Amino acid sequence: MSTKSTKPKPPAKRHDGRQPEALRTVHLERGYLRHAAGSVLISFGDTRVLCAASLEERVPPFLRGSGKGWVTAEYGMLPASTHTRSDREAARGKQSGRTLEIQRLIGRSLRAVVDMEKLGERSITIDCDVLQADGGTRTAAITGSWLALVDAVRRLVASGVLPQSSWKEIIVDQVAAVSVGIVDGRPVCDLNYEEDSKAGVDFNIVMTGAGKFVEIQGTAEHGTFDEKELSSLLKLGQRGIGELLKAQRRTLGND
Amino acid sequence: MSTKSTKPKPPAKRHDGRQPEALRTVHLERGYLRHAAGSVLISFGDTRVLCAASLEERVPPFLRGSGKGWVTAEYGMLPASTHTRSDREAARGKQSGRTLEIQRLIGRSLRAVVDMEKLGERSITIDCDVLQADGGTRTAAITGSWLALVDAVRRLVASGVLPQSSWKEIIVDQVAAVSVGIVDGRPVCDLNYEEDSKAGVDFNIVMTGAGKFVEIQGTAEHGTFDEKELSSLLKLGQRGIGELLKAQRRTLGND
Amino acid sequence: MSTKSTKPKPPAKRHDGRQPEALRTVHLERGYLRHAAGSVLISFGDTRVLCAASLEERVPPFLRGSGKGWVTAEYGMLPASTHTRSDREAARGKQSGRTLEIQRLIGRSLRAVVDMEKLGERSITIDCDVLQADGGTRTAAITGSWLALVDAVRRLVASGVLPQSSWKEIIVDQVAAVSVGIVDGRPVCDLNYEEDSKAGVDFNIVMTGAGKFVEIQGTAEHGTFDEKELSSLLKLGQRGIGELLKAQRRTLGND
Amino acid sequence: MSTKSTKPKPPAKRHDGRQPEALRTVHLERGYLRHAAGSVLISFGDTRVLCAASLEERVPPFLRGSGKGWVTAEYGMLPASTHTRSDREAARGKQSGRTLEIQRLIGRSLRAVVDMEKLGERSITIDCDVLQADGGTRTAAITGSWLALVDAVRRLVASGVLPQSSWKEIIVDQVAAVSVGIVDGRPVCDLNYEEDSKAGVDFNIVMTGAGKFVEIQGTAEHGTFDEKELSSLLKLGQRGIGELLKAQRRTLGND
Amino acid sequence: MSTKSTKPKPPAKRHDGRQPEALRTVHLERGYLRHAAGSVLISFGDTRVLCAASLEERVPPFLRGSGKGWVTAEYGMLPASTHTRSDREAARGKQSGRTLEIQRLIGRSLRAVVDMEKLGERSITIDCDVLQADGGTRTAAITGSWLALVDAVRRLVASGVLPQSSWKEIIVDQVAAVSVGIVDGRPVCDLNYEEDSKAGVDFNIVMTGAGKFVEIQGTAEHGTFDEKELSSLLKLGQRGIGELLKAQRRTLGND
Amino acid sequence: MSTKSTKPKPPAKRHDGRQPEALRTVHLERGYLRHAAGSVLISFGDTRVLCAASLEERVPPFLRGSGKGWVTAEYGMLPASTHTRSDREAARGKQSGRTLEIQRLIGRSLRAVVDMEKLGERSITIDCDVLQADGGTRTAAITGSWLALVDAVRRLVASGVLPQSSWKEIIVDQVAAVSVGIVDGRPVCDLNYEEDSKAGVDFNIVMTGAGKFVEIQGTAEHGTFDEKELSSLLKLGQRGIGELLKAQRRTLGND
Description:
Chain A is of the alpha+beta class.
């Protein structure tokens, strides 16, 4: 079986002029919303996701009485965020499989860096709403949500609800995510919509500040991939996530 | 039966220092989204609504073959937009009565100023998504949607799809809306969330650029009102809408 | 923009021979149902609505422990009630926006005349089911529901559940509703289906026995209206509601 | 296993004074609704069901192009029809198993006496809405629906849509139904709610004018039954249905 | 009205060579599943149904505090079990009327032989999932479920949860079911799919080990039937159920 | 942050005595169902999944007129398949996020080895229904589905619907899947339920017969993982999939 990834390709420029390893411009705006405990408007190029963290003093049934907290995520796309208007899920009466899959991924990624016992029996829900979609909405959502989560926990610490002296005792590491893929036979980082549409292989990688993996989700929609390609994709991902972790720290400053 | 509106009240200042007739700061940002045919981010103080117009070359079944077009609206609130996080309607699996009522109001308001025969057999859907809610989301949505609609129709005219020489032949007038109500016994304009919560009487008024009414929806949640109160509320509404119409024209410039 | 309401019209007779201000024949039949605490079959001409009040010794979550009661309404149309058979909402799996909007209106209208503290922590649900529809179903529903509500509260007082000596201490005023509109350029009262279909402007007005407004909902489906038209519509409404209030009192007799 | 039906019982009077074989008072009111092609308000004592037949010039997908028609039924109970108010199915978002089961039964019963080829490719939907429930709603619905169906077909014949000279060529026989059961150890006919609640065995029997069975549905909710009991129940049913068939013919007169 | 059942027919062989009274091969495999308290894979010829009983230490609201237990059933068909693949009900978002009707029938049939007071306040849910459908899935489900129910109760007795010395004190009799019908004018037992499709009259009969009826559901989809036909159908049913009861006892052995 | 995967562990035996790299016993039974075009009952130890392929001569809207075919999957678990009975998704009215995620994965995996142009404009739906769950249901489903798909395509070729001389021209390679994970600090292959519950890291790997990856989905539910751990997990996965590919070929024989 022949696949796109095996076709020889000259090192042509990417569609938008980026180098294979280059991220799009990343922008993080903290405190975008007034009511949420923490909120961040993140953009990866034209992709814009509003991440908001809300606190609730209760946990799902399976954790009641455990002394442990919970972090979960919900994801949605505004109908006009996509190239062609998409149906409103509230009007259709159900969330798509894609939506459910993405919000489960975001939730798992954030939980990997939270000490649930120190959080105590309370929940933080992260709403990730895509204002504009141009590829990479789930990786932008994870990257932005971490910062919204930090601000929500900071508020809990500041108000004395949590006895710890710093949010860093509850959120034990950073977490960020990027997509990588093989487009026109060449591994590239942070695919936009056009690249994503024609990618033979498409990965979403989630890593911590300590350089460990939390999630690797790789799909060969139009072909297959081998170990060598996997290895170069993971390298690209590590590099890209490194930059995103820096952007998170830069936005956080001394907080 | 005693009502809040009949209690004598000193002409105390409004909670946020505004005069009774004063609008909150209005801000209109055109072209907020890249994919939508027209889009406007409108804010009435802390209330922020993203209005986006999408075109579709087909009409609902009851208009097929009629030669007439259609304009409809959908409304939603991001879960984190409200003072306390609200459930995601897509997750609950249905839209609330309030949501359906608001989007029907927005649709009717816009249709009142569109010449459907000149629009031809195509539809424009206006998505109004509330990013932050602080009272008046539906009136902000109507006011902003009109501008998004203009930009969508301008694109149709510019691209030659419509034979008219100006969007003004299809959109025959402006339309804008404001809320008025009786708060602490005194008629005020453009209520924020706190005022709205304790208003004895609450009106949403929609008017055209020509100073005609399109919709009047008045509710006495905690009491009743008489003709004199109605009259002063309508005056406040006319005045407020007058300013919003100016803001629309200012944003539009010479387009 | 030209609207139907501005076209000059000769003072032709109404379709069914009524004068502009005339209601259709109103008929109120108390105690139509055997199990409901209160029930009324109301007709406005060919429009027939069955209103039934049921008691329940509990309140919605937001009122628990408040000592206050609640009154709410549900609305439905039998599929064969309409000119062309309409879908059964139970079979479609959801209530339409129109249904939700109407039942919210009925509930608000009734709550405006109930002293919730004296009702105590219990709920009354009013079911308004349209047996036959010929325009004005929501105004008939409000007018009939008030009487069903009275009978339900009378039963609570008679059985000693409520300590008051008369239902009039709990239901502090009457409430009734009528539609008015501009049809063929002329303001008319209590529109039937045919008039409603071609009305340029359509109002639903809810008033108390004391002559105060509870709700005003005016829509210009095909055009707009000005203050003068509004004023004459409100006058027609006040007059019509006056007759409905009398009909309620006549039906109630000395109860 | 002991069952209620085996306990010795004195031939005590029925709760409401009826003889074991006696029906409750049957009342049939034709033409109750103005818009439906045929409509009948039927009562079996306090049980009141509104049956309405609507015509539609199309058939379900599995019959398209077959030249055959279709008859189907929908069933619903008004929330206030029952002893204790029941939930509105439209609000709950789905029809109960009981509702679906009953409407399937009504549809099958009516189809048994219709010549679908002579009806031609069109559908008749019978809506059976229970205004008041006191046992036997489904048998009243079948009995009343037959008459509504006749009137709908008469209209088709009268208007010349169908070439037959009489509705009797399309509706080839009568159909009616009654419940029978073993209450306090004794077979009785046409159970009301109170009898139904304590019946050890409960049957619904549907028969044609020619004395043939269309459906027999017997359930021993609290016990079992033997052939002898079955035989006496069927006799009671035949007798009761005989009276209902007479009532149908009487109502129909010479039509 | 002529019906298929009245046409004279030679005593031709059944499609699959069986005698009119013959069952298909019955196979019962106990303990098919590892986690369920009781499970049976039953086959009636090509019809295969997996019946599994699960215990839960709680009862539905209407039984709380009554000291009585509950037995209920759920029914489903795998999409690929039918001749032409059927939609997955979970994907469509609701169970069909047929599914609800069948699971109600299975539940009633099993409850008829259970002493709910001795079961105590706990529930047993029987899942009946059709792996392959060739007619008679509901009768196979009832017959197999009885055995799964026995094994679940045996486990409760064996573990000392129930104080009785044998499951026979809780399950007071056997219950089994078979379909009978008139096919090509001749009464036959245990119809397969092909026979079921063309049956003029179709019965499902449920009986206890003591030879009493629990349910009789007879439908004349294409015609009607008289007392004589009913009588011969019931005889066929009794005979067939007799064999199924033997098969249950054989499978149970000395348990 | 400490994770389970970093704790030093002696090479203790696995819970069920397997070596770290050992699969559970794999069993493949072809032709389990009579109606489906292809069907396989696959077991990985106690995990049993029934995979059935159904043909349909049409494609989803986005492929109409493209000349290309489609392969999709649906997944479900019988309620009694799990350790504690799980809710029936059809009764709850929606499929869970987990279900949707798994069926999307199965569909993508199968599509990776099908030449859609040669399949032509027709669809194959693979139903994967879990009869018993003990970990690894999605990997068993993928592995079994491939064989069901082969049988469905073989039938198309044999019947002359497809012009190719062998199914191998349409299904261009094998595909199989296995789970690997880090349990008690040690990488193991084909986790059962108990291992899965306590795994720090959990991977599902899908590969082709040619040794290429189709999907890699790795999640660190309780911790994180580094490149070295990833590498050893992938090796385990490759080895396990190699055995599954052999089992597929063995079952297929010379077909």
